[in-house]
Amino acid sequence: MRWFSTIFHKNRRILNYILAAAFLLLVTVINDPVRISLAKISATVFYSPFFRLKSHIQELQNVAEENRFLRRQLTETSLQLVWLNEARRENQRLRELLGFEPPDNFRLVPVKIISLYQQLYPVAAIINKGSNDGIRANLAVVNRYGLAGKIVDVMTNYATVQLLTDPSNAVSGRVGESRQIGIVRFAPRRGLYMDNLPADAQVKKGDLIISSGLGGVYPPGLAIAQVDSVYANAGEIIKKVNLRPAVNFFEIDELYVLMEN
Amino acid sequence: MTLILYIAGLFALAFYQTILADMLSIYGVTIDFAALLVIMVAFRKSETVALWFAIVTAVVVSTPYIAVMPWEILVLGLIALAIKNLSSRLNLETSMSKLTLLGFFLLLHGLLISIIAEGEDLFYLFYRSVLPGVLYTLIFAWAYFVISEIIASPRRVKESA
User: Fold this and answer.
1) A58: containing domain
2) Is the pLDDT of residue A103 over 90?
3) Which chain A residues touch B if contact means CB-CB below 8 Å?
4) Are residues A17 and A46 in the same domain?
5) Which of A73, A125, A201, A261 could tie A197 with a disulfide, CB 3.0–4.6 Å?
């Protein structure tokens, strides 16, 4: 045994070469089984943790990519939903309009609001039709709930609607049941109210106020408002009647110009 | 302790092959990390250690492509022996001399493995892949030498004082 140890230590270098050459020969000659076994060992020991890490990283990248895709899709779907809701509302409005009949000898010309002019309340609206479409001043403008205003200025392709909420716009109104006539006006602090009603006028909360047709601008019978409250002070000859407008001026979108046939 | 360092080096090689190589490659040019590791060990350690580390490194680096395993063992083993024998005869104190030797053997490794693995379009492979790969590896090695010198210099000053 001693002689082996002596030979080993004296010829260590040569032994190394021989062993290395033998290993190389083993890998080269008995090629596939040895190589595969070595590769398996190497893959299991050295590579497998990093393969797992890489697959986790790829999974995270895929999740991030999927997340981006889903976010984009969600945005698109949300936009589509808004558009569909808008279409649904428009559909509902148009369905309601089918039951809305213009006064005799009048037809409805649908118009779109381009912009609203506001002073606490919307007081005027610019619409997308003008003299080219037959629009002229002093035509009544309605929506499906009732009277909204009248045309004041007309351009070739645009026109301005003076809404009932403009304090300078006054409409001759009639109490639906008692047929009493008064002037409907708007004041910024008070809101819509009816003026010039005598103290003995038969008017109560909930009564419908319609246009009287007097003055020649508005056809008779258009809903203007509902009576909200009535104040009759002793000694006064005029009743104070506050109204709730039929049209919600904060939500107007589609209007119709009443044109004579 | 030394054995743990070698094993850590092999793990680093597997990590590089699996994850870092793709990240650090520039237009398909990658760092020859296996050859770099073998040459670095050959600069510092004994012939036996350098030879067997080269063999194990060759097995690890050729795991994804076992057809080149014998050639990797042969080439990296010979490079380890050549570096060991040359470094005992040459003055390799400066980083530039080490880089020159490193560059030569990296080029040799790249060329031989390309000839064995690819077999054709050698000229194209040489200027498209091997030479840029050697330059990229040399930049990496140069950065390693600079950092290791910065780390070693205060220790040297302390020892000389």
Assistant:
1) 1-99
2) no
3) 12-13, 16-17, 20, 23-24, 27-28, 31, 35-36, 38-39, 42-43, 46-47, 50-51, 53-54, 57
4) yes
5) A201
At CB < 8 Å, which residues of chain B contact A?
A: 10-11, 13-15, 17-19, 47-48, 51-52, 55, 59-60, 62-64, 66, 69-70, 73-74, 77
Residues A129 and A86 in one domain: no
Q: Which pLDDT band, with edges at 50, 70 and 90, does A151 fall under?
A: very high
pTM of the model: 0.54
Quick check: A233 pLDDT over 60?
A: yes
Q: Which of A62, A84, A99 is the last residue of a domain?
A: A99
* Residue A122: per-residue pLDDT: 86
The interface predicted TM-score of the complex, written ipTM, equals 0.77
Contact present, A162 and A122 (Cβ < 8 Å)? no
Among A13-17, A75-79, A176-180, B76-80, name the most confident range: B76-80
User: What tokens appear for B115 in the block?
Assistant: 């000839």
- Contacts of residue A213, defined as CB under 8 A and 6 or more positions apart, other chains included, come to A172, A219, A220, A221
| Tally of residues, chain A | 261
